[in-house]
Design goal:
Elements: H1 2-35, E1 37-39, H2 41-63, H3 66-72, H4 93-110, H5 114-131, H6 138-151, H7 161-165, E2 173-175, H8 177-196, H9 200-203, H10 206-212, H11 221-224, H12 227-249, H13 254-272, H14 277-283, H15 291-298, H16 316-332, H17 344-347, E3 362-372, E4 378-380, H18 389-395, H19 399-414, E5 420-430, E6 436-437
Antiparallel strand pairs: 1-2, 3-4, 3-5, 5-6
Helix pairs in contact: 2-4, 3-4, 4-5, 5-6, 8-12, 8-16, 10-12, 12-13, 13-14
């Protein structure tokens, strides 16, 4: 028995030692892969393109009246809950705000005061993003995340004004983790976008049918009415989101994947608008092509990669203490709706910051019944007193904005010295299907609170 016990212990010890060696070997390979210096042409080109895109976007926001409609005309903007202190600049101030961001985009592109320019742009864009939800878009959140990532990358080490002014920062190399963090970010976006589409309203083509009919091309109107076509678009969207990153990573399918990406994003631009996102998504393709290819195509006069390696484990602390927690959050945040009671498609709780993009159409109405607690008189509040038409359209199907509107109505009467109760009549349909009551009509919203991290019981649930 003793010999058998010793033999078993020796076997376990042998397995443990082998496993330890295997893990150490994998760790060393991973460490080597992440910190090996490579040609930085991908990062340099992306910086140039990214700066141009954000500058163009800010100018476009001014020229197409987006800034005026969302920041200047409203007397109240739907800031993210908890950030009500973020308010637009008075008068025409938000126009200057966006002009300044456009200038910072130019500085980023040419690499002038790169980190200061990018850092300031990140703060200003975060302010604009959290300041209003009427025109909420997940792509604006992606832009913020990309800015944060770029702050930690030496994207001004070449072909920049900074590198000319300060030769000490000049370099033709970058540790490979700088490329992989960008690839991982876009992979997370596409993965969760795929998962979000796996629901009945997408799988039966309801949403894609409605989407196609918003911007019908006359010559293709008959095609858009065909069931097979909008079902094809629905399932092609799922397959694209699921496979595009692996297809771009594999050299044998990369060119075809890029062409598919080009068609997909230009199609979305034509039918959905969605600002600069199609072009920003295409710009991510830069990181999937070999750096030598990028250098030959865009930096022909540039010398080959320098022989001198970077410092050992360059950026190791940044990876360990920033990017690992950053991406853990990126993975967990879109999953939070699974621990909140109810279907996120209906309740919207956990919808934001979760890559649930262009996924459903919400329609319906919301009315606010105000009851004077002293006289008992009641009437429906005229929303035009507080909100613009665009704000009313955006608010009336979204629980968080409905709650915020009720609080503003309460504040409106408090300023007059009146105590009121507020009851809500709200019905919503998803993808033009049956209208259902969204809000419990018996709850007094003058007293209701917003729970950001779990289900709000005044949102009605259905099986």
């Amino acid at each position: 028995m003793l010999k058998e016990s010793e033999s078993a212990n020796n076997t376990l010890l042998s397995i443990f030692i082998s496993l330890k060696k295997y893990l150490e070997n994998r760790y060393q390979k991973c460490r080597s892969a992440l910190f090996t210096p490579i040609d930085n042409s991908q990062l340099i080109l992306f910086r140039i393109v990214f700066g141009i895109l954000i500058s163009w976007h800010c100018i476009q926001c001014i020229m197409n009246e987006w800034v005026r409609r969302n920041f200047i005309l409203p007397t109240y903007t739907f800031s993210h809950i908890g950030m009500e202190w973020l308010q637009p600049l008075p008068g025409e101030g938000m126009h200057y705000y966006f002009y300044f961001m456009a200038l910072l985009g130019v500085f980023i592109s040419i690499g002038l005061f790169y980190r200061w320019s990018l850092g300031l742009f990140t703060l200003l864009w975060a302010g604009a993003y959290f300041m209003q939800k009427t025109a909420y878009n997940n792509h604006y959140y992606l832009l913020l995340l990309v800015c944060i990532i770029m702050l930690f990358l030496p994207a001004n080490a070449s072909h920049s004004v900074d590198a000319r002014r300060n030769p000490d920062i000049r370099s033709n190399t970058v540790p490979s983790w700088c490329i992989w963090v960008m690839i991982l970010q876009i992979a997370i976006v596409y993965f969760f976008a795929t998962v979000a589409k796996l629901y009945s309203g997408w799988l039966d083509g309801s949403f894609t049918k409605g989407m196609l009919h918003k911007n019908v091309i006359p010559l293709l109107e008959n095609l858009y009415n065909q069931q097979w076509f909008y079902l094809f678009i629905a399932y092609a969207g799922i397959l694209f989101d699921l496979l595009i990153v692996p297809a771009l990573l594999w050299h044998k399918t990369r060119k075809y994947a890029f062409m598919a990406s080009l068609f997909f994003h230009l199609f979305n631009k034509l039918h959905l608008g969605i600002g600069i996102f199609p072009f920003m998504a295409l710009s991510f393709s830069i990181f999937f092509f070999p750096p030598e290819t990028i250098r030959k195509l865009f930096f022909r006069n540039r010398t080959a990669v320098e022989k001198t390696p970077l410092k050992p484990d360059y950026g190791r602390k940044i990876v360990l203490y920033f990017f690992i927690p950053f991406f853990i959050f990126q993975v967990l945040c879109p999953l939070r709706h699974w621990v909140i009671k109810g279907d996120v498609l209906w309740t919207e709780e956990g919808h934001r910051l979760s890559w649930r993009m262009m996924l459903r159409n919400r329609s319906g109405y919301t009315k606010f019944l105000v009851v004077n607690n002293e006289t008992g008189k009641q009437h429906y509040f005229k929303l035009k007193k507080l909100l613009t038409k665009k704000q009313i359209r955006g608010m009336q199907t979204k629980p968080d904005m409905i709650w915020q509107t009720a609080q503003k109505i309460k504040e409106h009467y408090q300023l007059k010295g009146k105590k009121v109760s507020i009851y809500i009549d709200s019905k919503v349909a998803i993808n033009k299907k049956q209208l259902r009551r969204l809000i419990d009509p018996n709850v007094d919203f003058a007293k209701a609170e917003w729970n950001y991290f779990s289900h709000n019981e005044w949102i009605l649930l259905y099986d």
